Each structure stands twice: as structure tokens, then as C-alpha cells.
Amino acid sequence: MKLVIAVVQDKDSSRLSNSLVKQGYRATKMASTGGFLRAGNTTFIIGVEDEQVDSVLQVIQANCKIREQLVSPVSPIGGTTDSYIPFPVEVQVGGAAVFVIPVERFEHY
Ligand code: 2BA
Ligand code: 2BA
Known about the structure:
The radius of gyration is 17 Å and the shape is elongated. The model has no long low-confidence stretch (mean pLDDT 91). The chain contains two helices and six strands. A four-stranded antiparallel beta sheet has the order 2-3-1-6. A two-stranded antiparallel sheet has the order 4-5. It has helices spanning 10-22, 53-63; strands at 2-9, 28-33, 40-48, 67-71, 89-93, 96-102. With 109 residues, the chain is an alpha+beta fold. The protein binds ligand 2BA (2 copies). One ligand 2BA is lined by residues 21, 24-28, 45-47.
């Protein structure tokens, strides 16, 4: 068994959730925050059999779009200076950052 962890944009999360259910996959959605943009995103955890991993990855890929996002200057006042960005920069966000992790044990009570 594998655990697929996928960080996706909020805009894609309902579509992805619907597609996963439609294809018979079980998933848990968690509200998360990107460390860089400090904006909300959604983390899916999807426990699947090894042979289903590729198909789940295809579902994720098909439902998550790459988008450009402008990062506004962040004022260092009152905060730390290590993440200070002095001018707006455009970053590419998503489609999805996906990790596939082996599951040692799965119990369902
Ligand atoms: P954020 O951390 O808010 O990052 C949003 C986008 O900003 C990233 O898109 C990337 O294009 C850029 N970015 C992030 N950190 C950067 C850095 N240190 N220097 C320059 N640009 C940077 P994605 O790579 O598609 O990531 C989207 C979200 O997925 C991230 O949101 C984060 O929540 C998650 N993520 C991505 N890679 C990860 C990783 N290796 N481990 C854990 N979470 C990750
Ligand atoms: P359970 O299987 O007991 O799952 C309870 C919750 O545990 C799920 O909530 C989900 O958040 C998490 N979960 C279960 N299996 C998971 C997995 N393999 N990976 C990640 N998270 C997992 P819900 O998704 O709201 O599901 C509530 C109940 O609806 C489930 O109870 C199950 O009886 C049924 N169900 C869920 N997805 C189904 C599906 N695709 N087909 C048929 N029944 C489904």
C-alpha cells in the first residue's frame, strides 16, 4: 500500500475530490498553507494499493492546473527578514506537489 500526499491549489480541490470519489478512491482533504506564498492550499492524503498509484497520479494531473501567481513585496516590519521580497515576482504554482510514501501498516476499525 502507498500513501499519496498531494498539495494542490484550493481552486482545484473540489474538482479533484469529485473525480477521486467518482473513480472509487478514498481520500482525506486537509486545509494547508504554502510556506512560500503563505496562502491557503489543500493537501490530499490518499491511501491506495500499489497498483493504483499511477491511476491516482493521472487523476491528480488531470484535475490540477499550473497557474502564475504574483508575490507582492512582504514587509519585514514586525516579522523576520529572511523571507523579505523587495519587489513583486511571478511564480508558477502547481498543478500539484505529490509525494508517494510506502505504508507499513493500515488498520481500519
Ligand atoms: P508555496 O510554498 O506557497 O509555494 C508556491 C510556489 O512558489 C511554488 O509552487 C514555487 O513555484 C514557488 N516557491 C516555493 N518555494 C520557493 C522558494 N524557496 N524559492 C522560490 N520559489 C519558491 P509549487 O512548487 O507548485 O508548490 C505549491 C505548493 O506545494 C507550495 O506552496 C507548498 O505548499 C507545496 N510544496 C511544494 N513543494 C513542496 C515540498 N518539497 N515539500 C512540501 N511542500 C511542498
Ligand atoms: P471510512 O472508510 O471509515 O472512512 C472515514 C474517513 O477516513 C473518510 O471520510 C476519509 O476521510 C478517511 N479515509 C478512509 N480511507 C482512506 C484512505 N484510503 N485514504 C485516505 N483517507 C481515508 P469520507 O471520505 O468522508 O468517507 C466516509 C465513509 O464513506 C467511509 O468511511 C466509507 O464507508 C464511505 N466511502 C468513502 N469513500 C468511498 C468510496 N469512494 N466508495 C464507497 N464508499 C466510500
